[in-house]
Specification:
single chain; mainly alpha; 8 helices; disordered C terminus
Length: 234
């Protein structure tokens, strides 16, 4: 049995983000005259997940499990095939893998906080090159399948796959990719909202909170990681 004692890793800014997404969802529901339960639960659990992840808190995977399941359905309904496949076939099982991996990487047996590390320069250059190649390749495939936003959908899909891998392995560089993914995702869902897609405005709100949190996560993991640590990619 796992027992956590050092659980409170959240700061006032983190609570601001969590309460902000809840409040924003309530205000939007009042203005829209209806309560979008799927979009709201997806948005709130998603923000809680990424806020905890930004603090290196293993409990993020509990909220992530709920979020990715709902977001897969929402993306599918909006014809964003890359996002739907990413969440259903990759993010969902990675919640379990991430939990198992982080359990062994905590700074103590009673802590929820993972020990972060960094890539070296050559690994960062390799990361950039591989990311660019796969973004272009997947964009072409999505174009063949009539994806309405192939390049943007490809970028969020490919960079998210890589970022999630780096997250599970507890590398700080994940946050560089999350910032890019979140910015592009805001653009995607703004376009979806303009096209009248269901749940889209709540997704715009969610991704805006994600973007702000990813910048905070980048700063937080710079402190969590050690400059003199040489990572092991095995």
């Amino acid at each position: 049995m796992i027992h956590f004692k050092k659980i409170n890793t959240l700061k006032p800014f983190d609570w601001f983000l969590i309460l902000g997404i809840v409040t924003t969802n309530i205000i939007y529901s009042v203005l829209a005259g209806e309560f979008d339960i799927i979009g709201s639960v997806a948005g709130v659990t998603g923000v809680v997940c990424v806020v905890l992840a930004a603090k290196g808190n293993i409990l993020n995977y509990i909220f992530g499990l709920i979020n990715v399941a709902l977001f897969a359905w929402i993306s599918y309904k909006a014809d964003l095939l890359g996002g739907a496949a990413l969440n259903a076939l990759y993010y969902l099982p990675m919640q379990f893998i991430g939990w198992y991996t982080w359990i062994k990487k905590r700074d103590s047996e009673e802590s929820v906080t993972v020990v972060a590390k960094r890539l070296n320069l050559s690994q960062r250059l390799l990361l950039a090159g591989v990311s660019a190649v796969f973004v272009i390749a997947v964009a072409y495939i999505l174009f063949l399948f009539k994806d309405p936003q192939p390049l943007k959908d490809s970028a969020t899909t490919v960079l998210s796959v890589i970022a999630m891998f780096l997250m599970v392995r507890a590398f700080m560089e994940q946050w560089t990719l999350w910032v890019a993914v979140n910015f592009i995702s805001v653009v995607i869902w703004v376009i979806a909202f303009a096209n009248g897609e269901a749940h889209s405005m709540l997704m715009v709100i969610m991704w805006m909170f994600y973007l702000v949190n990813s910048v905070s996560g980048w700063i937080s993991w710079l402190r969590l990681s050690k400059k003199d640590h040489l990572p092991d990619l095995k």
